Fold this sequence. Notes:
Blueprint: H1 2-21, H2 28-38, H3 46-69, H4 79-92, E1 97-104, E2 111-117, E3 128-134, H5 142-157, H6 162-170, E4 171-176, H7 181-189, H8 249-260, E5 265-270, E6 275-278, H9 289-301, E7 313-316, H10 324-332, E8 335-340, H11 349-371, E9 375-381, E10 391-394, E11 405-406, E12 413-416, E13 421-428, E14 435-442, E15 448-454
Parallel strand pairs: 3-4, 3-5, 5-8, 6-7, 9-15
Antiparallel strand pairs: 1-2, 2-4, 6-8, 9-12, 10-11, 10-13, 13-14
Amino acid sequence: xxxAILRYGTKAVLAAIxxxxxxxxxxxxxxxxxxxxxxxxxxxxxxxxxxxDASAYAKSSGLQRRAFANRxxxxxxxxxxxxxxxxxxxxxxxxxxxxxxxxxxTSMGLPLYALKISDxxxxxxxxxxxxxxxxxxxxxxxxxxxxxxLVENLLRDYRSNAATxxxxxxxxxxxxxxxxxxxxxxxxxxxxxxxxxxxxLRDNDHDGIFNPTIDGVDxxxxxxxxxxxxxxxxxxxWFFRGTKPFSENEIEAMQTLALRENIFAGxxxxxxxxxxxxxxxxxxxxxxxxxxxEVGQKLASCMRKLSGRSTYALLxxxxxxxxxxxxxxxxxxxxxxxxxxxxxYYTGERDTRRVVEEGLxxxxxxxxxxxxxxxxxxxxxxxxxxxxxxxxxxxNHESRYVAPRFSEPLFGRFERLLLPGVYTLEVxxxxxxxxxxxxxxxxxxxxxxxxIMLTKKREVLPAGNH
Length: 466
Ligand SMILES: [Zn+2]
């Protein structure tokens, strides 16, 4: 009898926490995971999660009706106005901006756009690539506004501002302002229905009808890095990770883009919490922990909180896997953060403007830091000059759970952010002799350039009498 009471007690606590955490993405979610780990697996049922979501639905729609009554949405662009914004900029700046459709949303087939800003945007140039993304989650519009403002400012200031010109000339800036267009459309089309919506509209139960209590996948739990340990396996959960990694078109498209462009640094905007989240937290320590921590700390310190009393905090992405930053780092070795903007999902107009300004200040730091990729160069075949895809390993900065950084195939270009110091580099490619560079000096304010030529391994004939 006693254990039954205890079990009931745990469930009640869990339900309370789930309801509490819903308006916040962080840091309440950390405690959610911690609490969940203390509950034995047989105490978790699909039914319990489902009803948690149902009560959240009732609670949040009440709160949200008030936000709508206060017209808190009016200044956020609808999906159509976001698309029009993109069209307008493309027509205005055809040389500097290329818009590419990288896919279509899972359920409604809405276009997924990636914007590339560079000095010759239509051409694949030999330049390092950075990626910004927003609105993985439908109810988080402010990141999309920030991304569009970033694009607009870069294009507008290119001719008049030398610093902007340098960023655009030397980097390829990729921006996916809206990763989840169908979820976003749903929020704006059904203002009074289920406005806290977070996921895409995936038809989980295959009945051809969208039902918010069972359908949808949390796109920021669908990346393939310890995917099975992140999010939830219950389709009704707001954190449903999907049936397999990259099951959702939106995240498949993000993967393809990030791999193709060999992204080396990035930010993904969410809301809310006024924090910068870095990979990893309570998982393994990242082999680039010191660097990640320093960049994250500086990024956070560039963004003032709405209260004006302090700046954004830097916190670990605790226990949250299957997420973009974890994958970007684990797979591409990109220095990538999640930025939780603002102090609510739908900030008032004035606060939105301030949050966007702070976000732009953070991005400005981040881009200028990325501009000084501390080591960069090319790996080519010493005989033919052909570009090579090679592993760029740094002694004492590798581990078995993080992929090494690779050079990209088109130019053999590579880059890595590092803290100042002396490093040993190991460059290897299949079929080529590995080369070591024992004392590479890395400086704070300029890149160390390396042109690396590898030679083919000589074929070793099998020993024996012929
Ligand atoms: Zn989010």
